[in-house]
Amino acid sequence: TGILAGISHHKAGNVDFRRGGRDLRVAMVLASCSIVGILVAVSAALNIPNLVLRLYIGFLVLSMGIIILVMRGRSGRFSWKKLVGLGLLASFNKGISGGGYGPVVTCGQVISGIEGKRAVAITSLAEGLTCAVGVLAFGLMSGWPQSTLAVPLVTGAVLSVPLSVWSVKRIKVKSLTIAIGTLTVVLGVVTVLKAVLG
C-alpha cells in the first residue's frame, strides 16, 4: 500500500520521485535505515511489556505533534544526518509496536524543512519498504504466525490510496502542516490514554 501510495503521489505531482531527485533519495535513506532499526526492534519487541511500548510510542508521537504546531511557519535546516537518525528512530518504533512510523517520519521531515505534501508522499513510500522488512523479520524470528487480518487490512488501505492522494494534492501546504501537527497530537494523546486506561 505504501509503495502504491508513493507512486500515486508522484503521478499526482505531490512529490518528485524521478531517478536522482532529492525526494527519492530521502525516501531511500529513510527506508534503508529501516533494516537496522527494524531488526533491533523486532528482537526487543519480543521482550518488552506492551504497556511500556504503547506509552513510549504515545509520548513520542505527542511530542512530535507539539513540535510541529510550535514551529509552524518556520522550518528547520535540511540535514542528511537528521534524516538517518529519523529513519532509525521511526523504524525502531515500527518494529517494536507496529505503529509510530508515519507520524514520526512525516513530522520529522516537516521539522527538517521538507514541505508537508512531499513529506506525506515520501513517508508512504518509505513506510511500505519498512513494512516489508518488518514482516520478513517477524516471520523469520517468530515462525510465520498465521494472520487472517492481513488481507482485509491491505484491501482497505489500497482502496483509500486515491482519496488520500487527491486530498493531499488539494490541501494548501500551511493547512496541511497544521493538520499534520494537530492529528499527530491527537493520535499521541489517544495512544497514551489507551495504554493507561487499558
**Total beta strand runs:** 0
**Structural class label:** mainly alpha
The best one-word shape is globular
Structure annotation, total helices:
8
Question: Uncertain segments of ≥5 residues (pLDDT<50)?
Answer: none
Q: How much of the residues is beta strand, in percent?
A: under 5%
How many angstroms separate the termini? 30 Å
The average pLDDT is 83
Report on this model:
The structure is a single chain. The chain has eight helices and no strands. It has 198 residues and is mainly α. Helix 1 packs parallel to helix 7 (150-170) and helix 5 packs antiparallel against helix 6 (116-142). The model has no long low-confidence stretch (mean pLDDT 83).
Keywords:
single chain, 198 residues, mainly alpha, 8 helices
In short:
With 198 residues, this protein is mainly alpha-helical. The protein is 80% helix and 0% strand. It is globular and about 45 Å long.
Structural topology:
Layout: H1 2-12, H2 22-45, H3 50-71, H4 80-97, H5 101-111, H6 116-142, H7 150-170, H8 173-197
